[in-house]
Design a protein that fits this description.
- This protein starts with a helix and ends in a 6-residue tail after the last strand.
- It has seven helices and eleven strands.
- About 30% of the residues lie in helices and about 25% in strands.
- It is globular.
- It has a single domain, classed as 2-Layer Sandwich (Alpha-Beta Plaits).
- The chain has about 240 residues and is an alpha+beta fold.
- The strands form two sheets. It has a six-stranded mixed sheet with strand order 5-6-8-9-7-10.
């Protein structure tokens, strides 16, 4: 009885280490396979790029050059208020800008569709689109999720657990208005972008009993990494 009270109190304050340890021993509910990316908007609109750059000043010029060439690229990005993993930088973006000029020298990677084998075959340090239905990420609503492995969670189990979580998020939210889901992960961290048709749809999806299991699942093996401020989109044409 005492253990149950401790776990109940820990859950209310955000899953402490003691309850996290007990969750490790629980059998996880089945989650459907995610054998391929849902949707293919980037094939018609143009490839998506995941960029991690130290200086955002190169983006307006890259946007202006692309727009003058008759293209209609989009940029959505954040400035991180916490130290990023070594592979990333303070400014992180999802964009359809072409890799040219100064942007070509930046740390940008093309967002890949899920590989053969689906979500379970994702490689580390490669951005993947689990859901690719949004044609313009500057419309609608996008949330950035930055997480790191919980200290109590075994390092060897983190990546398999994360891949299960990716499948769960797609299963929970793609049928309920999430039309974009990009994941970039390392041995002990996850960067995820969730795009929705609008913010109201996102709030409703997370408020359902089923939707609440997504954040709870994440909290059982990883924790929030820090705050961020959205800096793009903006008046990029000037």
């Amino acid at each position: 009885m005492r253990h149950l009270k401790v776990c109940r109190r820990a859950f209310l304050i955000g899953l402490t280490v003691s309850c996290g340890a007990s969750l490790l021993g629980q059998e996880l509910a089945p989650v459907r396979d995610l054998p391929h990316t849902i949707g293919s908007a980037s094939k018609t609109r143009g490839p998506l790029m995941f960029c991690a750059i130290p200086d955002a000043s190169i983006i307006p010029a890259a946007y202006d050059a692309s727009a003058k060439g008759g293209q209609r690229p989009f940029v959505i990005g954040w400035e991180l208020k916490a130290d990023p993993p070594r592979e990333l930088a303070k400014i992180v973006l999802i964009t359809s800008l072409p890799l040219s000029g100064n942007l070509a020298k930046a740390n940008c990677k093309r967002v890949q569709p899920l590989p053969p084998g689906g979500a379970d075959a994702m490689q580390l340090h490669t951005p993947y689109a689990a859901v690719d239905k949004a044609t313009d990420w500057t419309n609608g609503y996008t949330s950035l999720v930055m997480t790191a492995k919980n200290d109590a969670f075994p390092a060897k189990d983190y990546v398999p657990r994360l891949k299960r979580h990716v499948r769960l998020v797609a299963q929970l939210f793609e049928p309920n208005g999430m039309d974009g889901y990009i994941v970039h992960a390392g041995e002990d961290f996850e960067w995820a972008y969730l795009h929705w048709v609008d913010k109201e749809t996102s709030v409703k999806a997370f408020a359902t009993p089923e939707g609440k299991t997504g954040p709870a699942d994440s909290a059982s093996f990883q924790h929030a990494r820090g705050a961020s401020v959205q800096i793009f989109p903006g008046d990029l044409g000037k």
